[in-house]
């Protein structure tokens, strides 16, 4: 285990002190960072400014990537009654916003990873995100291909893909050109990668190797028992 990801910058000196990296950094947006994203022009200035600052911080620290989100589909991200942004309009907005900073990411050698999230699980704010625009993996891949930058990729979260699309191994093949980072978790429940969930991770990891993926795999499950024991089990399952 060589990385502690999504860590706030104030922890980075400690991470580096111990010879670790932060495989993907947060985007710097306050609160629930996945709500206000590139799909909505009213948030572009803030999202682009904060993401740019994090790209620069990653460059200085020698860290490889920054997370990004489409955002919620409401015109006011906090208010479902404000009306919806259509899927086509949202895709255009994401492409326009990401293109504004793609060149800077390329110059700094830091990858922006747009995450696909599920909208089906409403039992917990970190298990599902009802209202999130980028809940279809093909939709997110299409946005990224339109941006067309080697430094704008997908955060392929196996847990979210399983819930929304399934067919994970074939999805990896179809999205291999745009995958920039990978997350795991057990489904249902976003718990450990154990016998109580349905995703078979070793062949998924072998498929990632088969398509030439050379990035990190982040263990993003929510522990339901001893966290270290669960982490050891997950790392062993994914070490193929």
Outline of the structure:
By secondary structure, the protein is of the alpha/beta class.
Commentary on this structure:
The protein has 240 residues and is of the alpha/beta class. It has a single domain (9-238), classed as Divalent-metal-dependent TIM barrel enzymes (TIM Barrel, Alpha-Beta Barrel). The protein is 39% helix and 14% strand. It contains eight helices and seven strands. The chain has helices at residues 12-17, 44-61, 87-108, 137-147, 158-164, 168-175, 201-210, 227-238; strands spanning 65-69, 74-76, 79-84, 111-115, 152-157, 179-184, 217-219. The strands form two sheets. Strands 1-4-5-6-7 form a five-stranded parallel β-sheet. Strand 6 (179-184), helix 7 and strand 7 (217-219) form a beta-alpha-beta unit. Helix 2 (44-61) runs parallel beside helix 3 (87-108), helix 3 (87-108) crosses helix 4 and helix 6 (168-175) runs parallel beside helix 7. The radius of gyration is 17 Å and the shape is globular. The mean pLDDT is 97.
Average residue-wise pLDDT: 97
In what order do the strands lie side by side in the largest sheet? 1-4-5-6-7
Q: Topology as H/E string?
A: HHEEEHEHEHHEHEH
Q: What's the tally of helices?
A: 8
Give me the Rg, rounded. Answer: 17 Å
CATH architectural type: Alpha-Beta Barrel
The percentage of residues in β strands lies in 5-15%
Q: Identify low-pLDDT runs.
A: none
Structural class: alpha/beta
User: CATH homologous superfamily, by name?
Assistant: Divalent-metal-dependent TIM barrel enzymes
Number of strands: 7
């Amino acid at each position: 285990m060589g990385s502690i990801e999504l860590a706030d910058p104030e922890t980075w000196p400690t991470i580096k002190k111990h010879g670790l990296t932060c495989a993907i950094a947060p985007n710097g947006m306050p609160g629930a960072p996945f709500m206000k994203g590139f799909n909505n022009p009213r948030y572009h200035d803030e999202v682009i400014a904060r993401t740019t600052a994090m790209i620069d911080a990653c460059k200085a620290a020698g860290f490889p990537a920054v997370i990004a989100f489409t955002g919620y589909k409401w015109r006011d991200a906090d208010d479902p009654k404000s009306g919806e942004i259509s899927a086509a309009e949202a895709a255009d907005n994401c492409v326009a916003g990401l293109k504004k900073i793609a060149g800077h990411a390329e110059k700094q050698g830091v990858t922006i990873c747009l995450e696909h999230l599920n909208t089906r699980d409403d039992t917990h704010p970190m298990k599902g995100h009802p209202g999130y625009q980028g809940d279809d993996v093909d939709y997110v891949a299409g946005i990224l291909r339109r941006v067309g930058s080697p430094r704008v990729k997908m955060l392929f979260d196996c847990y979210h893909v399983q819930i929304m699309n399934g067919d994970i191994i074939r999805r990896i093949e179809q999205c291999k050109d745009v995958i920039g980072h990978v997350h795991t978790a057990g489904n249902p429940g976003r718990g450990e990668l154990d016998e109580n969930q349905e995703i078979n991770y070793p062949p998924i990891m072998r498929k990632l190797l088969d398509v030439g993926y050379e990035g990190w795999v982040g263990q993003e499950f929510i522990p339901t028992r001893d966290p270290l024991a669960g982490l050891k089990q997950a790392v062993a399952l994914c070490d193929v």
